[in-house]
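FIELD: query
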Amino acid sequence: MMKMMEKLSLPFTVPNWVKWAVVLFILVFCIALGYSIYLYNSIQQDKEAGFQASAERAVAETDLEQAEDVSRYHGKVLYHVVTGTTADGSEAIAYVPAEQQDGKIVLFHSEDLVSEQSILQAWNNDCSSCELLETNLAIEKGQPLLELKYIDDRDRYVLHYYSLTDGSSGDHFRFNRS
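FIELD: result
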């Protein structure tokens, strides 16, 4: 008697719908990844829009000879913070109102300000168990400030402002993390 041969399937053979589901998943993942990269780049460009113009304006309208770095601070007014050097080689900080083309640029020479290192040392003595995340130059009411962002000992996100003119502690904003 002849035995009928049964059709054997290979162990790696999968149904058609599974193949299409995997292909669809990979396609959706690639599209989502591409869109995320595009969105990130677009946001970064918007965030840094006007930096070059503010740096040029700071060099043209103040004692700055060379702009080295530009950052932003948005309090009541959006400022582009331009750091650089003057003709005599000293460091200076120019606060350029970003949304006001005719707004007054405020310039501070670094030798007239408290250093960031001394403020950080004083902060570290007061809050030794805190985790520093970031520092930024800021300005409010014509007063140059150093903004510290950190996690305190109670696991709160804190914004803390120090005066760059005398190193005194200013406003604190504490946010509970969830």
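FIELD: remark
The beta strands are 64-74, 78-86, 91-97, 106-109, 131-140, 143-151, 156-163, 169-176.
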